[in-house]
Design a protein that fits this description.
Elements lengths: L6 H14 L3 E3 H12 L3 H4 L10 H15 L3 E3 L4 E4 L1 H5 L2 H5 L1 H14 L12 H19 L2 H14 L2 E6 L10 E7 L2 E10 L4 E2 L1 H11 L5 E6 L2 E2 L1 H7 L7 E4 L1 H10 L16 H5 L2
Helix pairs in contact: 1-2, 1-4, 10-11
């Protein structure tokens, strides 16, 4: 039976990968490097998580990063860039092995002081909300009709700066769902796009078929899915000597909808914390 490494097994490889990447990395960069460091075969990389928006490896790496952040070995920015802290730069594999116990002790101390319930040592309010809203949003996206998803993708591209975005969706068109023009300062690029609304993983054959349909029409392609892309699909999309195809998976699509405020609103929540220690000194 194929086994995905547990998050505890991925913490040190994550530290090692960040060091190899110069001390910091975006989420996808770090995932790719961890897979390389751990030498995970494709059959392990491509096992989907039950949420349908990421692989099991990606999910477990998320928790590895969360534990490491709780322990003070890594930090992340609002742009999703993870970086080693001073402690992370100098920590040893033995130090990292102690992280789960350290985080559990932090949770127990928080519960003792009335600051948490201690049920889950690493899920804080931000983590829980981050997971829940994306799951809810993806459920909404998967429930709409395919042509509605194409129109939504069209709207998203327009909001992101594309001009002359047209949805074609013609049968026998090689899977091309639309075409748009992206203007960057004085230059304009014609971009063909394809939309896939489903829960599974997109494989390399889909990338090759899409690229074949692009021949003679455009050198730029964009493939959007509510699911995920296999590691082989990502490699095929950036294969040397072939036109590069940009990939947007379900996780990124959710982030873009939130960023562009399309059907997703952000609310500020006040958190009230009682300090029992203060009252004991009155």
């Amino acid at each position: 039976m194929v086994q995905v490494p547990a998050y505890t097994q991925m913490m040190w490889p994550a530290i090692d990968a960040l060091k190899e990447l110069g001390g910091s990395a975006a989420n996808d960069e770090l995932l790719t490097k961890v897979i390389e460091v751990m030498r995970l075969p494709p059959e392990v990389q491509n096992i989907p998580h039950t949420d349908g928006r990421q692989s099991k490896v990606s999910y477990n790496l998320h928790w590895a990063k969360t534990y490491l952040k709780k322990a003070g070995y890594v930090d992340n920015s609002v742009r999703g860039v993870w970086a080693l802290t001073d402690a992370g730069e100098t920590c040893t594999q033995q130090d990292v092995a102690l992280v789960p116990a350290l985080v559990r002790k932090m949770a127990a101390d928080a519960k003792k002081n009335g600051l948490g319930d201690g049920e889950e040592p690493v899920v804080d309010a931000v983590d829980a909300l981050e997971v829940n809203w994306k799951d809810q949003l993806l459920d909404c996206l998967k429930s709409i009709k395919p042509d509605a998803f194409e129109r939504l993708s069209q709207r998203l591209l327009r909001e992101a700066g594309f001009i002359k975005v047209e949805v074609t969706g013609r049968s026998g068109d090689g899977g091309i769902d639309g075409i748009g023009v992206l203007r960057l300062n004085l230059l304009s690029f014609q971009v063909l796009f394809q939309c896939k609304r489903y829960s599974g993983s997109v494989g390399p054959s889909t990338i090759r078929d899409f690229r074949g349909a692009m021949v003679g029409r455009s050198d730029k392609g964009l493939l959007i899915t509510t699911g995920t892309f296999t590691a082989e699909a990502k490699k095929e999309a950036t294969r040397d000597g072939a036109p590069a195809i940009e990939l947007i998976d379900g996780e990124q699509f959710c982030d873009l909808l939130k960023q562009l405020k399309l059907g997703v609103a952000t609310e500020m929540v006040e958190r009230v914390v009682v300090d029992p220690g203060w009252f004991s000194k009155v």
